[in-house]
Amino acid sequence: MSLFNSFKLAGSAMQAQTQRLNTVASNLANVETAASKPEDVYKPRKVIFEAALDKAKPGSAAMANSVEVKKVIAEEVEPRKLYDPKHPMADEQGYVYMPNVSAVEEMVDMMAASRSYQSNAEVMNTAKSLMLKTLSIGQN
Asked: Global pTM?
């Protein structure tokens, strides 16, 4: 793998983690949104990644050359049902339906995505440093 491929791979991974962070932000923003019907409740989203493989030469192993977001799925989870007859979104029986999103799990996911993003930025910095050192060979 050349250093240029390292930039492509790390850059695509950073782009994928950015989408993951946006999805986590959406989930966190909707933790306390209420609905009067279970089918209207916000469904938490998750990002599914996929490695895009190079076409391998005969007899060699395929190598990942980028990370792609395969899809963003809405999880099928039961909403939380809360009894709060004074809530403006309460149904006839006094129940309010809330998304089943764990703020703690979302924060952990956000930290993992952030660390992955930082790691890929460090890969790019290291590749850049190696290229600069390669260019400086023989300058003295």
From this structure: 0.82
Q: State the pairing for strand pair 64-74/45-53.
A: antiparallel
- Return the pLDDT at 138: 72
- What are the tens digits of pLDDT across the range 17-39? 999 999 999 999 999 999 999 99
Q: Which residues contact 27 (CB under 8 A, 6 or more apart)?
A: 44, 45, 101, 106
d(CA 66, CA 1): 12
Give the residue carrying structure tokens 């460090």: 122
Judged by DSSP in three states, 61 sits in: coil
- First CA to last CA distance, the chain: 29
Q: Is 96 in contact with 90 (CB distance < 8 Å)?
A: yes
How far CA 91 is from CA of 85, 86, 99, 128, in Å, comes to 8, 10, 16, 59
Per the CB < 8 A criterion, the answer to whether 44 and 27 are in contact is yes
